[in-house]
Each structure stands twice: as C-alpha cells, then as structure tokens.
Write a structure and sequence with these properties.
Blueprint lengths: L1 H22 L4 E2 L1 H9 L8 H8 L9 E3 L10 E9 L10 E7 L4 H20 L6 H8 L2 E5 L2 E6 L3 H11 L8 E3 L12 E9 L7 E7 L4 H19 L4 H8 L2 E5 L2 E6 L3 H9 L2 E2 L3
Antiparallel strand pairs: 1-12, 2-3, 3-4, 4-6, 5-6, 7-8, 8-9, 9-11, 10-11
Helix pairs in contact: 2-9, 3-6, 7-8
Amino acid sequence: MKKVVIIFFVMLSFSLLALFSGCGVYDKMDLEKAGTEILALKTRTLDLSNIKETIESDSSLFTELEDMELDAFNHEYFDEYLFRTEKSNVNSVSLYSYLIVKPSEDKKDLLEEQIDLYYKNLLKEYSEKEDANEEIEERLRNVMKQQYEGYLVYILSNDNEAVWEKIKESAHSLLFENTKEAKLEDFGLSTNDITEFKGVTPNDEANVSFYLIVRPKNGKVENVKKSMNQYMKTLDKKWSTYLPNEYKLVKNHMDTEIGSYLIYIVSKDNQLVLNTIKEAVVEKD
C-alpha cells in the first residue's frame, strides 16, 4: 500500500511539473515583431477584387466593362472566377473582356475547351458583320491566353501585355492596406483592463479589415471579452447592409486565445495572420 501511495505522488508531481512548466510558454509575446510582420502579409490566393481595381484604373486598356456570369460554361468545371466584358449594347459583340477563372479539380482541359470556343465564336460573329473592321478582327484573333497560379487567364484589350503585367503585379494584395494603429477606444476597451495590446484599424469607411492582440490584466479577461463581443455585434450590424464582400469578412472573423493573450482578426486570410502572431511568441526561460 505504501509503495502504491509513493508511486501515485511521484506521478502527480511529474504531472504538475509538466503542467506548470508549459504555462510559461505563452507568458510573453513580441508585439512589435508581430505588428511589423503582419503589415507585410499578402493574400496567399489571388485577390480578384484587387486585380479588377488595378486593371480598370487604366481607361486606355478597355472600354467600360461590366460583370458577366459564366452561364455559357459548365459550372462544374470551375470554382472561382472574375469575368468582365464590354458593357452590353443591343446586337453588339463584346470586343473587350478579361477572364480569370480557377478550374475545378481535373476539369481544366474541359473548361479550357469551352472558353477557347467562346472566343472563337466571338471572332466568327464579328467577322460576319457587314461593317467588320480588319483591325478589330485581328485583335479578336489574338486573345491572350495565360496560366497563373492554377488560374486560366484570357485577355482581350487594347494592350494585352500591359493587362497581363498588371494582373501579376496586383494578384496578391496586402491584408491590412490603408490602416492605422489601433487605439483601445476604437473597440470600446479601457486601459484599466489592459496590460498591453497591438493592432490596426481601417483608415477608410470602405474597409473592414483589422486585427487586435490584447493582454488583459488579471481578473479583467471577461471585461475585455464582453467589450469585444459587443464590438463585433456592432460591426456585424453596420456591414450587413453595406458592402457584401466586406461583410463576408466580418462573418468569418476569428477570435481565439494564445496563453494570456486574446486575438481578434478580420481579414482575407485569418489563419495566415494567426500563424504570424504565433511566431512572435516568446518562450519563458
């Protein structure tokens, strides 16, 4: 019996040692390092909205464009796309467009066939017009076709090479562009509850992305959580009737904990931001 008791206490001692030695792992975080690295983060997948904005800022490349659905193509062949074509006129052929589309798994060749046929038919339709222009016909024959990071890219413009360069330059946008250093009052938080914090907030009304790393004082964790829950509810209400893409970011927000730190993230890649924050953890000696 005595031997069993001794073994029990030895095992308990080891368990407590392991428990408390692990508690110090997240006792401190290098917030300045985290802040610097987070501001340099870019989207890992193509940011189609940023590409659209960059391309169409140069009015010399296209006429006025509008969104076009991929109704002519099998929807099982693609996962994501941006298709912009010349603003439609009755009985007109779209002479300007660009398409960036991500094929579904094992469907690339089938999708490619359909898109190639679409542009071939555009040329045919235009060539049959009585007032067909030879210069425009030549442009329709020379639709640029590229591949970029798993996406198919088609360009029909006044300067396909220039558009292609803009696509590559703008494919990955900063996660926290046009932001400013966060203040606790931005989130309804009090300095009486906070030991340290780091974050950014949007610098304009058309952007919702932010992150906040906050370390509450002892006994103040619930105060901070309550304030942040209210802040997120307010954000949800504000954006639910505003910009759909930004509201989607709000709905997919991340809140989590690393040791004694509370983390809140609204961005196009929350996991990437969280991974970067984890790298800023300072282990206890």
